[in-house]
Each structure stands twice: as structure tokens, then as C-alpha cells.
Amino acid sequence: MLSSNWTRLQPASFLLLGIPGLETSHIWISIPFCLVYLLSLMGNVALLLIIKTDPKLHEPMYLFLCMLSVADLMLTSSTLPKILSLFWFNGKEIYFEACLTQMYLIHSLSTMESGFILAMAFDRYVAICHPLMHSIILTPTVVLGFGLAIVFRGAILLSPHPFLLRWLSYCRTNVISHTYCEFMALIKLACAETKIRRAYSLIVAFLTGGLDFILIICSYVLILLTVFNLPSKAARLKTLSTCVSHVWIILVFYTPAFFSFLTHRFGHHIAPHTHIFVANIYLLIPPMMNPIIYGIKTKRIREGFFKFLTTKRV
Predict the structure, then answer these.
(1) Which of 103, 113, 162, 218 has a CA-to-CA distance to 156 between 20 and 30 Å?
(2) DSSP secondary structure of 160-219
(3) What is d(CA 274, CA 87) in angstroms, rounded to the nearest whole number?
(4) How many CA atoms are closer than 13 Å to the CA of 148, on its beta-carbon side?
């Protein structure tokens, strides 16, 4: 009897509603979504090829940037094809297991992105505050170790999430008012007590994105203290210019991330379509902007990009 009830309360699939209230505009919304997705793919693939083919770019900062690009490619490719299918072909249905898999990939890869941004902040801290120790501290082995630790952190800490959701009963509805599967949207459909599961999700969010952000702020406080002690204004400006690209990436990543996180838990009076737009911006914009920011601000990558185009033409 328990088995029968459990099976009955486990939906075979969910239905993704898309953007509530804007269903008739899905086809038009899909155009910028598709363009941003294509730019993300092309930009990150080009960035990876440029860094791989140019030995001068085999430095910790750019290696961490490569890791971030791989995470960006995986994140967008795990969500955008299904979102575009929903917008173009009204493909609302997503199987239960596929939904849990997508949810796990979104949260674990987002956690990895946050970790790689923290690693890049640590690189800037060492390069500016301890320049003579930079090559000694951030050896290729240490960089690889950092990368693996960040990947394992995201994979392991988020691994309970699919099981926490799978063991729940869903007796309310199988319609998800979102464009993709994510933890809070799914847990709201459960008809069982979810306080412990929600608490675990909050703790993981703090131990990953929250703690990463605090450490990034601390690293930049130390960087600013070091920069302000430099003897000349020119030296201060030159040193700060090496951080501009990374600061832009921090803003592009964390601003929509924190807004989405807070509105999901506390913004009950915010219109659903506003929240879902911001949640999609969080997935779409950072992967597109990261290659553009570093392409514009970093001379080596700019030169590598033009060199790459020239080589292809020849």
C-alpha cells in the first residue's frame, strides 16, 4: 500500500509553464534568448581555443577563466535547449528524472562558477599583494588542485538535492511556473513538510555562493589597501586596471544571482514574470559577458582573437 501511494504521488513528468503571464510572447522572447545562447557558445569556445593555443596565456588567471568558460558552456547547454523548445514548439513536458538532473546541473555548475570567480580573486590578491610569490604560490599543480576542489565541492554538496526532492510526494500539481527546473520551484509543489530540506538548501547556498562572495570582498579590501600604499597615482591606476575585468564578472554574476535567490525566498510580492526574467538573466548573461569582458579589457586575449581569425583565414 505504501509503495502504491508513493508511486501515485510521484509524477511521471512535470510541465514547464514558461514565463507566467507572457505565454503569448514566448516566440518573441525566444529571439534574444537564442542570440545570447549562440553568443555564449561562440564566445566561450573561442576563448578556450585562444588560451589553449597561446602559451603566453597559460597563467593562473586565464586557466581559471578557462574553467569558468567550461562551466558556463555546460550550464547554458543544460538549460537553453529545453527553454527554446518550450518557446518554439510548446515543449512543456520534462520527465521527472530529467527535471531532477537539470536541477542538479544548474545548482552544482552555478556553485562551481562561483568557486572559479573566487579563485580568480585569489589570483589577483596574490599578484598584487605578494607579486614576488605569485609564481611560487600558484604553480600549475596548485591551480589544478584549486580547480578540482571547486568541482568536487559543487558536485558533492549539491548531490543530496535530487534525492531530497525525489523522496517527496507531489500531490498538488505537476505544473512548474518556470522555464526550467530548480530546487525552490520544485519543492513548492510538494505536499509534505519541507523545512529541513529548505534549511539544507540555505546552508549549502551560504557555504558556497555566500561564503565565496564574502571571501572575494575580503580579497579586494586587501588589494585596495595595498594599492593605496603605492607611491604614485600612475602605479595605483595601473595596478587597479588589472582587476577591472574580474570586477565586472563579479558584478554580472552575483547581482542577478542574489536577486533571484532573495526573491525566491522572501520576495513574495514581486511579480512572477519579474523573478523568472531575472532567473533567466542569471543563466544567460554571465556566460555571454565573460568572454566579451575579457576580450575587450585584456590585450593578450584581444590579440589572440585576431591572431586566431587570421590563422583561420590563411
Answers:
(1) 218
(2) HHHHHHHTS---S-SEESSSS--HHHHHTT--S--HHHHHHHHHHHIIIIIHHHHHHHHH
(3) 17
(4) 6
Cell numbers of 73, please? 558552456
Judged by phi (left if over 0) then psi (alpha if -120 to 50, else beta), residue 124 lies in alpha
pLDDT in tens, 182-227: 998 899 888 888 889 989 998 999 999 999 999 999 999 999 999 9
Q: For 273-295, how does the pLDDT look when each residue is reduced to its tens digit (9 = 90+)?
A: 788 888 888 888 999 998 888 87
Contact (CB, 8 A) for 117 and 216: yes
Neighbouring-strand partners of residue 176: 16
The string of DSSP codes covering 5-41 is: HHHHTS-SEEEE--STT-GGGHHHHHHHHHHHHHHHH
Can you say how many angstroms the Cα of residue 84 is from the centroid of all Cα atoms in its chain? Answer: 19
Rounded-to-integer distance, Cα 124 and Cα 145, Å = 18
First-residue to last-residue Cα distance in the chain: 70
| The model's pTM | 0.91
Q: Does 1 score more than 70 pLDDT?
A: no
| Grid cell listed for 274 | 519579474
